Amino acid sequence: MKPLIQTSGATLLLSLAIISTSLLAAPGNRTGQWQISLIPSYTSSQTITFEGGAQADINSHSGFAIGIGYNFSDFVELELDIGSADGNYTGTRILDDGSNTQERYNGSMYTSHMNLGLTYNFLASHITPFVKGNLGFTYVDSGIPTGNIGTVCWWDPWWGYFCGPYAQTYTASELSYGADLGLRLDITSKVFVKGSVGKSYINFDKSSSTGFTQYKFIVGFSFR
Description:
- 11% of the residues lie in helices and 67% in strands.
- It is mainly β.
- The radius of gyration is 24 Å and the shape is globular.
């Protein structure tokens, strides 16, 4: 049985090698195509240090975005993506009473972003590594009350037009940028998948730029 098993294994490896070589050698068909991408992501935990010694230990969390892009060639692609994420964090605040007492508290934060990304594919084939640069803005709602009460109005299915109070929270819109390195596979001329890992930086006020490690698995659909 050993020779048969070894022959079958060698045949399988040879078949995989032939398929991979064929995909690498096959020309791409991305030039002139539009694409829509579904982008789930995972962001690793990170600690942000602010002026005065305050900190925010942000837990790892997931997010989701939708992108629309255009392929100028098999190599160059421009994409706009919009997404959001929710996460929890543990904050450390320093009391301003002369005691420098540190207090720990738990909070929840919401973020949304709009990024413009430029991708360069290294190969004009169905399988290609790529590098992508991103530039945009990120909106952050810290979940920390400001002490002010606002009013919000909405159409309720039961009560009609309704207005009520809500506690305002500290928010900010900051410049964000980053880069990704990944691999793209064009399954067909209409469907592709990508996997990438990268760094995303946000210029928080009162803090230096903070980098978050992000992992993305992307499912996309191409059309003309």
